[in-house]
Amino acid sequence: MQHLASVPCIAADEEHRELWTGSLYSSTYRAGICIKSNGDVYGALYLRQANGAVDRYTISGKVDGDRITARHHSGHEFQGRFVSEDTVRGELTLKNGHKLHVRASRGPEPEVDEFCRLVQQQ
Questions:
Q1: 48-91: per-residue pLDDT in tens?
Q2: How far apart are CA 62 and CA 111, in angstroms?
Q3: Helix or strand or coil: residue 12?
Q4: Does a structural domain hold residue 82?
Q5: In CATH, what number is assigned to the domain containing residue 86?
């Protein structure tokens, strides 16, 4: 995600949509993210497992400068930093306390519904 301060297209009460992708072990993920003008983040992450099954996680969080936080109501939480305009790195803490290092890359603007869920999962 772009740093909020560098997103001039976000006027008050508007939002900016982004697609972030990556992989985790043998799974891939895509996240449709909406960023509000105040830095609030919400959307959905789709995790495609090696067997083809897709799990969806609704997420919410905050962008503040070069930092981003996001969480799922079950207790999973991501804390990361923008290392470039198109790359975020951070740590995903699962609800059981297990920590995973995560890297995500920005993709093209996603097609999302009114809840910022990806219209096409993959």
A1: 999 999 999 999 999 999 999 999 999 999 999 999 999 999 99
A2: 21
A3: coil
A4: yes
A5: 2.40.128
Question: What are the backbone dihedrals phi and psi of residue 23, each rounded to the nearest 5 degrees, phi first?
Answer: -140, 155
For 54, the token pair is: 């897709």
Q: Tally the domains of the chain.
A: 1
Q: How far apart are CA 66 and CA 1, in angstroms?
A: 9
Domain range for 10 is: 4-106
Work out the burial of residue 82: count CB atoms within 10 Å of its CB; fewer than 13 is exposed, 13-18 middle, 19 or more buried: buried
Residue 113 lies in a domain: no
Distance of CA 55 to the CA centre of its chain: 15
Neighbours of 106 (CB within 10 A): 18
Is position 50 within any domain?
Answer: yes
7-54 pLDDT, tens per residue?
A: 434 455 688 899 999 999 999 999 999 999 999 999 999 999 999 999
Residue at 95 is within a domain: yes
Q: Does the pLDDT of residue 96 top 80, yes or no?
A: yes
Instruction: Examine the pLDDT at 1 and tell me if it is beyond 80.
Output: no
